[in-house]
Each structure stands twice: as structure tokens, then as C-alpha cells.
Design brief:
It contains five helices and eight strands, in the order αββαββββααβαβ. It is α+β, with helices and mostly antiparallel strands.
């Protein structure tokens, strides 16, 4: 009986180890756009967002969509299914598959430093759970902050930034006002120069680029 218990325990531990390994997988996705290529790594401890993003990538759901919202020194946003066939100058951003992804906000481990891949969502007034859009995402470009600006933000919001956050926002830049409110599920590992080119294109009053920036394709390049 004791031997069987040990064997069973070993089996359970193997299963748990397999699950941990699966959770730690950090696949890499190549985003090929009109303006160049971007590689993003998906965090292993964001399994809901990671797996949903991979499902859409494998299903070619992003191919042909636009980066439809661009704000310099803030972010570039894409993934609206309606953008694929949208006429020029039409306001975009309200298209989504018919479901949401529960929030996976792990803060302050993940915060809105430059280059982070994050899930867009509707506002707190209609979405107090902070559930994410299943398809729309944004990449943070952000701005650089001074120590005084960060001190003021801490005082106004009643928060305390970690030393890592303060250093990142001063040296790399980012969008700290979004911290703790949106799911950060990955990061750019190659191609931020492409993202920077995007953020400075001319846009209309709805922040849509005057010249379309299209996602030619997305594909998983590392499982």
C-alpha cells in the first residue's frame, strides 16, 4: 500500500511539473507589417491571453487588419476585425469577436514600460472587471518621465512605484497611468524601431493613420 502511494505521488508530481512547464512557455510571434517586422514574446504566466492570442494567430485572424489607432509618445493599437475592409477615414476600434478574456493583471511585475504588449478593453463604466478584448492589442511607446513627475504621480494616485518602475519610466519611457488597469501579456523583443516609425505617422482626428498600416501576417516562430 505504501509503495502504491509513493508511485501515485510521483505520478501526480510529474503531472504538476508538466503543467508548470506548459505555463512557463513563452512563444514568440512575428508581426509582419507594411512598415516592417516586429517580434513579440508572450508571457508564460498569462495563459488565457497567451493562448487566445496564439489561437487567433494560428487561425490567421490578424492577417490583413490595421493598426487603426496611433498616438505618439503613448502607443500603437491594432486588432479590430472591422479594420480589414474598412473604408478610409472611418473611425475604428469597436470591433471584436463576441467574447472577452478575464483580466490577468500581474502588477507590479508587469507594468507599462516601453515595448510592452497589452490587451485593449472597454472602460470601467461598462467593464468594472477589466476584462480584455479578445483581439485588440496595443504596444506601448510612451514618454520619458522625470523624477519630479513620478513623485507627483505617486502623490496624486496614492501609489508607490518600485525602483524598477521608476528607472524604466525615466530611462526607457512608458505609460504609468495605465498600470494595474490593463493586462500586460508580452513584450517586443525585436522591431521597436518599426513601432517608433508607426507612432509618428500623420493621423486624423480619431488617431487613425491617414495612410493605412496593415498587418500583412502574423505567425508563431517559436513555440
Amino acid at each position: 500500500m505504501k509503495r502504491m502511494t509513493v508511485t501515485a505521488l510521483a505520478y501526480i508530481l510529474c503531472l504538476c511539473a508538466g503543467n508548470v512547464s506548459a505555463q512557463e512557455k513563452e512563444p514568440v510571434v512575428l508581426i509582419d507589417t507594411d512598415m516592417g517586422k516586429i517580434r513579440v514574446k508572450l508571457y508564460g504566466d498569462m495563459p488565457l491571453h497567451r493562448d487566445n492570442f496564439l489561437k487567433l494567430v494560428d487561425g490567421r485572424q490578424y492577417d490583413g487588419l490595421l493598426f487603426h489607432r496611433v498616438i505618439k509618445q503613448f502607443m500603437v493599437q491594432g486588432g479590430d476585425p472591422k479594420s480589414k475592409e474598412a473604408p478610409d477615414s472611418v473611425k475604428l476600434g469597436d470591433g471584436d469577436p463576441d467574447y472577452t478574456i478575464p483580466a490577468e493583471i500581474v502588477f507590479p511585475k508587469y507594468f507599462h514600460r516601453r515595448g510592452q504588449l497589452c490587451a485593449a478593453r472597454t472602460g470601467d463604466d461598462v467593464n468594472p472587471e477589466k476584462a480584455s478584448s479578445p483581439s485588440q492589442f496595443y504596444i506601448v511607446t510612451g514618454k520619458h518621465f522625470t523624477e519630479r513627475e513620478l513623485d507627483k504621480m505617486e502623490a496624486e494616485k496614492g501609489v508607490t512605484l518600485t525602483p524598477e518602475q521608476r528607472q524604466a519610466y525615466m530611462i526607457d519611457g512608458g505609460a504609468p497611468h495605465l498600470d494595474g488597469a490593463y493586462t500586460v501579456f508580452g513584450e517586443v523583443i525585436e522591431g521597436m524601431k518599426v513601432v517608433d516609425k508607426m507612432q509618428f505617422v500623420p493621423v486624423d482626428e480619431n488617431d487613425r493613420p491617414l495612410k493605412n498600416i496593415r498587418i500583412r501576417s502574423m505567425k508563431v516562430v517559436k513555440k
